[in-house]
Each structure stands twice: as C-alpha cells, then as structure tokens.
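Deliverable D4.2, example record:
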Amino acid sequence: MKAYVLRSEPNGTTLELREKPTPQPSPTQLLVKIRAASMNRGELIRGQGLVKPGAEKAAGMDCAGEVVGSGEKVMGRLPGAFAEFGVMDKQDAIPVPPNLSWEEAAAIPITFNVVYDMLVQQGNLKSGEWLLVTGVTAGVGVAALQAAKALGAKVIGTSGSSAKLDELKKIGLDVALQTRKADFADAVMKATDGKGVNLVVNNVGGTVFAECIKCMAYEGRLATVGYLDHTLKAEIDLAALHEKRLKLYGVSNKLRTAEQRKATVDGMKRDFMPFFASGKLKPLIHKVFSFDELPKAKDYMESDAAVGKIVIRIP
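Output generated by the structure prediction step:
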C-alpha cells in the first residue's frame, strides 16, 4: 500500500510517500480502508515535540473509512492516517452518520475530541455563557465556535483577518475582533457588560495569555490548546487567579492514557454525535486535496489561508 512518512528536518517537517506492507490488526483493532483523512496543524509543527529532530513517523492522525470485512463506516483517531489502509483501536472507532460525506467525517475526530475535552469535560461550558476563542479561524478555533453555539453559548473570536471573521459570522460568531495583538480585553469586557467571559480557548499562545486573563469572569476557565505564535512562556497575574478563583488548564493527548482518551471519545459519542446526526453541527471544510497532493496541502495549511479544516481524499 502507499503511505506517507513525516520526517523532521532542521527547518521543519517534510512528507515522503513510500510503499509499505498493509498493517495487520490486533484483536483490539480494526483494519480500515481509509477514504479521507484530515490535516492537524499540531502534528506538523516540530517545535511542539510530536516529531523530534532527525526522527520520522507515520503521517496522519485521524480519518474516516470502511472496516475491512464488515464494510462498517467509521471515523476516529488512527496514527498513520495518510495511507491507503490503517489500523484503528476499536475504542476510538465512531460510527459515521449517514448524512456525512467521507470528507466531513474525516474532519471530525481529533478536532472535535479536543473541543469536547476543553469545552465540556474540563471547561464545563453551559448554555448562555460567554466563550472567547483567540485565533478563532484556525481548525480547532472554528470547531470550538461551532460546538459552543450548538451548546447554546455566546462566542467572541479574534483573528487578524476581517475576511475570515466575516465567514465565521455566517456560522454564528457573535462578536468578531480583528487583531493579531494582545489588545482585545477592553472590547471583550464591553461585549460582556463588564463581566468578562466564562471560558477562554487560547489557540494563539504565550503572547496573548496575560490578555486572556484580563478577559475572564469570576470563576472563569482558560484552556491552552495551541501555539500559533510559537511562544511557550507567559506571565500569570496571580492576584487575578486568586481573587477571581480562576481555573487554568491544558488540552493535549500527548501524555493521556488509553482509558482517558476513551472517556473523551465516549463523551463525544454521547453528547456531540447527536448534533452531527441531526445536522445541527457540521464540520467546516475549507479545501479538499487529493492523496498525491498531500505535500501541497501541507504548504497550503502553513500559509494560514484556511478557515476551517483541510482534508485529504484517498482513492
């Protein structure tokens, strides 16, 4: 079968197409004929530690496809998803609702598992609450917006692109703040009548962390999920943390156990999949590339032109 390998080079990561044997599933796995796979920025950024310098790994993190033998349509986390076949742990497999295309199904697993973790499991976001998403036009940011609206929350989003923000207003963004700087706290407080937001999803990184703290309401929560600015350190206002009883947490699967990941998948099946099946929630796909265009798709993703997910169609 054909499969891509992700290599870490001095100046970043590169993708290389190779011929590999078809993997064989264990008793706890499913062999999947992959129909589509999505791109996840975190996998391709060497600085986040997913690929160490000089190392290589099977490329791709999640997909949608057919279980070999049964024909069941599934989507889920699958390391090495940029390939014709792959093995998926049974606990990660999510049935594909009939109203979703392969490309739509492939855009869901990793992104919306992360969103479920940070909005519901850890963030406890409720209907009527305010959510702030920095870098809202990135894949996880868009999914956080969509899921929050499905849950009944109100959403403020920041981005440097007014055109991208206009696109997200069409799918429910309540307040759009065009900025690439840490200068949005006053606007956030004004939009929330001086109360601040109940939950922040920081998708940008350290350069806006202190500004995010300024935006938080009493007993507010702050999720750190991305580093679009490549800045991994920031100051913390301990007085605000103390007085407002704030909760700060990270969102990553890197060190989680299989049981912890399963709890998130099970929760997403229970709480989010009915939204997808009814059409209330639908992934926003920006562009679809063919399998042989994967390196081109990586370059496109790194250009920051996308609003939503980039998906690879696999023949």
